[in-house]
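Support request, please re-run this one:
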Amino acid sequence: MNYFPLVAFPLTLSIIFSCSSEGLATVLKASQRMAGFSTDSRHYIYLESSRNPVTDVPTAQIQIINVANSSCVRNGCLETEYDRSAYNLSNQAAENDLLEKTLMLRQRLELNRLKVGIQLPVISRQRTPNETETVNFRLNKQTEPLQIRLEQRYIPSVLSGGSSPVDRAAMRLIINYNYRQLTLGNLNNYRDAVRNYSIREVRLSPNQRNAVVLIDMTQPSEEGVLQTTLVQSFSLEPFGI
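Re-run finished. Output below.
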């Protein structure tokens, strides 16, 4: 399977503070504009935006995903690329730019009237020192939990004390349910400008046959780190559902 790294709703950039090994770091979070399943539950869309803390230029990212194979549809995963002269452009204008470019695609895939899906309750969450994260979700009250384990590798940049030109991180998801297992991703598939990943939430499609995993992807920025969203997905059919 192929994966694309990369909703209403506040357009301002959220800022929180957290402690890291480097001291007090600012965590900037991209703002969600649009998210949801198509009416037939076959596709999922996620649109978010943020602002460069130094240049104040907005960046918007859209992901239109084929849910069954967790891959971007053709021309469905885009990111704006403005220069410094766009500092007076609003986040909403940047988002609308991508919405306009994908208008015909979204109409064809029935993404004009979105279904938010069902957010699965979290039963437990554990994270080990090597950054492996295991989250158990309640899929059905009468059955065992849906377990998703996120494994990851990180290569630090020179600025982060390593030898790589940029921070790089790889991840994979190992999904266990009903005594069956499915693996998404590859620990040798590194994404540039990424430090780590964390499972945010899982949403069940309206027809309850597919699931989407929203993953927080932490990226270095001039003023700390930026937290964006990576969409992964899978069918429940291999688990006998």
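The chain has two helices and 15 strands. Residues 14-233 form one domain.
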